[in-house]
Amino acid sequence: MEIAGKTVLVTGANGGIGRALVEGLLKKGAAKVYAAARTIEAVAELSKIDKRVAAVRLEVTHATSVAAAAEHCPEVDLVINNAGINRCAGFMAENAMENARQEIKVNYLGTLAMCRAFAPALIERKGCIVNVCSVIGLVNLPVNGTYSASKAAGHSLLQGIRAELAPHGVKVLGIYPGPVDTRMTSGQEMPKATTEEVVQAILEGIEKEQEEIYPDAMSKEVSAALLQAPKEVERQFSAMIPA
Ligand SMILES: NC(=O)c1ccc[n+]([C@@H]2O[C@H](COP(=O)([O-])OP(=O)(O)OC[C@H]3O[C@@H](n4cnc5c(N)ncnc54)[C@H](OP(=O)(O)O)[C@@H]3O)[C@@H](O)[C@H]2O)c1
């Protein structure tokens, strides 16, 4: 999908990958960008910088908030479901049940609610849904175990809605980043891609309508290895558990 001239909504637009996506979409010539965040104040600054940005209040876990956003932004061509949380812990961590509940609520159920709410408008405009998943939704990273599981659910969601919406002319694309330098990974020592390089690859992938977009070196390497030797990748990721 060509981005120039289109109307786009980005969730979690107040920081990290979301904010960089808003900036990248504007550079690509988007006609209007709805920058959605839990508080309007968090994105109000973006709408002052560029008049094409409209701030939208959105809490993806609240049905009324999701419905209000869909009603407020009926003319979208592209919805980028970027909002997400990572409690950065394993299945045996003390708070694992609560971590898993919250991650599923935001990363899976919140994304599902957004896809359902915006589907009628996207069907009407033959639009596109882009969900930010994760390469660790394709193989479990045990130190982020419950998050990986929620992103695996997000990957399955993508495949399902892609099939359901394809006959209606709606494209569904998935983004599978490796580690990116944002608030989510702050305090985690490892090589990280920058938001700018990831966003550039994401926007190029959207323009080429690639169903699966691996936007950084690590995600490209892992996805290729998963095709060749999935058990070996699982072993490598298991070995990242601290002794
Ligand atoms: N960073 C990485 O290494 C990495 C790798 C792979 C995939 N991802 C995915 O990329 C996406 C963006 O993450 P990021 O790295 O940019 O992290 P981030 O800076 O923490 O951004 C997460 C965004 O999601 C929003 N959000 C969280 N819960 C929400 C809710 N219930 N309703 C609405 N918005 C909510 C946050 O809003 P608040 O500011 O209000 O909390 C924030 O704007 C996520 O889906 C993440 O899982 C990240």
Global structural class: alpha/beta
- Total number of helical segments? 8
Helix content: 40-55%
Predict the CATH topology: Rossmann fold
Q: What small molecules does this complex bind?
A: NADP nicotinamide-adenine-dinucleotide phosphate
Q: What's the structural domain tally?
A: 1
**Numbering strands along the chain, what is their spatial order in the largest sheet?**
3-2-1-4-5-6-7
Query: Distance between the terminal alpha carbons, to the nearest Å?
Result: 46 Å
SSE sequence, one letter per element: EHEHEHEHEHEHEHH
Rg estimate, integer Å: 17 Å
| Largest pleated sheet | 7 strands, parallel
**Gross geometry:** globular
Low-confidence stretches: none
CATH superfamily: NAD(P)-binding Rossmann-like Domain
Overall pLDDT level: 96
Strand content: 5-15%
Reported CATH architecture: 3-Layer(aba) Sandwich
Secondary structure tally: strands = 7
Indicate the CATH class.
Alpha Beta
Keywords: Oxidoreductase
Domain Ketoreductase: 6-183
Organism: Citrifermentans bemidjiense (strain ATCC BAA-1014 / DSM 16622 / JCM 12645 / Bem) (Geobacter bemidjiensis)
Pfam families: adh_short (PF00106)
